[in-house]
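Recall that a protein's primary structure is simply its ordered list of amino acids. Everything else, from secondary elements to tertiary packing, is in principle encoded there. The following example makes that idea concrete.
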Amino acid sequence: MAFDIEMIKKVYATFGERVDAARELVGRPLTLSEKILYTHLWDGKKPNKSFTRGTDYVDFAPDRVAMQDATAQMALLQFMQAGRPKVAVPSSVHCDHLITAKLGAEIDLPHAKTESAEVFDFLSSVSNKYGIGFWKPGAGIIHQVILENYAFPGGMMIGTDSHTVNAGGLGMLAIGVGGADACDVMAGLPWELKFPKLIGVKLTGKLNGWTSAKDVILKVAGILTVKGGTGAIVEYFGDGAINLSCTGKGTICNMGAEIGATTSTFGYDESMERYLRATNRADVADAANAIKEHLTGDAEVYASPEKYFDQLIEINLDELEPYLNGPFTPDLATPISQMKAVAEANGWPTKVEWGLIGSCTNSSYEDLSRAASVAKQAIDKGLGKKAEFGINPGSEQVRYTAERDGLLGTFTDLDATIFTNACGPCIGMWDRTGAEKAEKNTIVHSFNRNFAKRADGNPNTYAFVTSPEIVAAIAIAGDLGFNPLTDTLTNDKGEQVKLDEPTGWELPEKGYAVEDAGFQAPAEDGSNVEVKVSPTSHRLQLLDPFAPWEGTDLKGLKLLIKAKGKCTTDHISMAGPWLKFRGHLDNISNNMLIGAVNYFNDKTDDIKNQLTGEYGPVPATQRAYKAEGIGSIVVGDENYGEGSSREHAAMEPRHLGVRAVLVKSFARIHETNLKKQGMLGLTFADKEDYNKIQEDDTIDILGLTEFAPNKPLTLVLHHADGSTEQFEVNHSYNEQQIEWFKAGGALNIIRKEAAAKAAQA
């Protein structure tokens, strides 16, 4: 039986009438995305308003929340401040990011359990206390576990990871968010989202030969680029979509994060039903079947998609060929037939050192079976392999079943390393021998991201994204330019042999099996569960509430930094040292703005301390201001906060005493996160005023005593020469968000409201 089946039945009970009401309001047939959006409005009633795509901010009520172990730490540390005895919606924690891949699962997993014991123990105890499902280290990668256990057609969920969108393979709207958003939903508050635009992808034909579901999204990424999906839901439809497996659909949705899409999804069909029944969720399949006409887009939409989507892409699967995307960006798409020539023209190293299969996007049973069929050929045809080979199964259920059916044995016969059921190299948790030498080299993998330094920390590792079966073929050949559709290889007898097309199984013929999936159910009553955090821990730190606004204008602020160009406000990922501090606000604050370029000297992490006149790191300079009780302001450029959906990016300056962030424009999620932490997020009314900011400025922000929606504030610059300038700055705060500012953050209000309810009980 499925988890939370009563919740799912409750969603379905009113789904049809809400869809009908929305269709009447909008006055036209509806896409699947619109149906799910309109059935998850916060007020819980039939829709009574039509929303404008890309314009209206809307409050939603997600059905569940999921968190991976790195992001869950801060999300749950914040939730502990909310004063609630239990989460308001079904929630889960998954331990998958904090497990280094090095020697193989048998050694790596026990090591991780020891190295990150206090984090895992903390997450386990918090989950137990607040009614959260806990998936132990080794249970699997969050998004594969969600697909196998929690995702359901027509549902809406949020997760503290950008690849939450994987659940679109089961017809959900699954959206990646920051921990502050997750905390709000778990605390019973609405979740705000700008009503997305819609991109339709019509798929015709059927995959064949070496082509896989991965190639669909690799081609789409090449068309849309890394920014082309921003603010939009990508909805796939057509005969080609119906011909895909459920896990194949998940693969496509998953990597939609790399085109910036809000999420991606498919309409409910027989492949989803088959997957639900295979994963012991016949009750969900039966419930979905009862309303299946509502769990896909209206027929009129798919018949004339150009009328209903903001953008339309068409792909014929019959003609699609395998792709390799990269290096250093996931949208540089090269068909396999052209890779040899393109690699030579660009000077990319063609000798392949590693082939890696796994990640949340390509670690299903189907993926492993097709890759194993290629690996078996290498053994049977006397080829062996020329590159190192690594496998990350997606979950313990997948691993156990694949081992039972001999798939893992085939990989080990080819001398592959079976890593833990975890993220490993994909998230940058790969202790790769020799990476520290920073030598130029090439790897191929079935992951989703391939930015510089992502996998192994080496800026000179050229990583190419492709399907599991192509990874296997190229690992056997050891050559980036190898095309298994046309090329031959020399075997141990000196013969020229050609690899046959891969084969595999959509679902295991004998069904899935597992002895211990790794799930820990929470206590029925968690009131007596004690959450322990050592005061001397360098990885975990309990949070103190931020101070409320003092009720006055802000005067005498020092300019901390004037950032030039793109500014990612915190640098946590990419195999860096910061991942381990995700649960310790003070320690992770030492990475605040260290990658931002100082306008005045074109250097990173080198700014002027106005108290001493000396130059030094950004965090240390801000700590000096804080020690003197002096507030500061950060000035930024366009799209400030891009790539920093994590709440740390807003919490770090708040913790260190920054009072305001003034920019030309914000990345949406970061602006919201600033608001939730009680920070002032402001924009220049006239972007040219950015040029007026001088290095030694002391700054006042006036108008806060009359802070109101749509009412600009005034910024006064006090220059070092004694002159002053002033100009208007804008904000996008609504009444509720202004209250967050006054209270010192949204959590302070949540806690106050929870205490009031408890007093009444």
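The domain at 554-755 is CATH 3.20.19.10 (Aconitase; domain 4). Residues 334 and 536 are 51 Å apart (CA to CA).
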